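Input record (one chain):
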Amino acid sequence: MNPYVPSLHSVVLMSERDGHENLYLMSLDNGKFVQITDSDDIDGEHANVSPATEEAFYVEDRTFTSVSLRAPYREKKIRTVPDRYGIKGIPSLASDGGTIAASLHDEDEDRSSLVVIDVRTGGMETVKKIDGKVDHVLINPVHGDTLLYHLFSRGPDRPGRHHRREQDGADRFRRPRRAPVLAVQRQGRRIRAAGTG
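The corresponding structure, as predicted from the sequence alone:
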């Protein structure tokens, strides 16, 4: 996360000073900070900041949530995902703060869904489903119609290593020279899958 908010000359940070992960806003002018979330179930390490909308985005108890970075620091529940999914990685934001991209992993099926969520309406669209665990999804900052993602799977012979699942008639694992980064592109107003994965 880039925690700097230029319009407020402040940074957003995570701290466990109250015993739970919460987000704080610290002024770079005077060093004073204020707690902007009050929860015992947020994933503060995976928060993201939108300088454009002056909001921080995070996941709290399976719900994508935003909080205003201006007093009175109002929270907004954006979208709750079904229990069967694990939310992987940091929620990625479009540069305008209007779209969240994320990976939802179904442990039972070992399948990931790349989704985009409209921050204003909470509407969620599945862009692509991928066998295995996608642990990072990013909205390309130059081309906001492109999702970049990283596929991480634990191979049968090398737990914890990066693998790319190859589908060429046999279901086998082959370790690539470097971890694959794959892309999904948007055409018009709709995002579509492109490339391999």
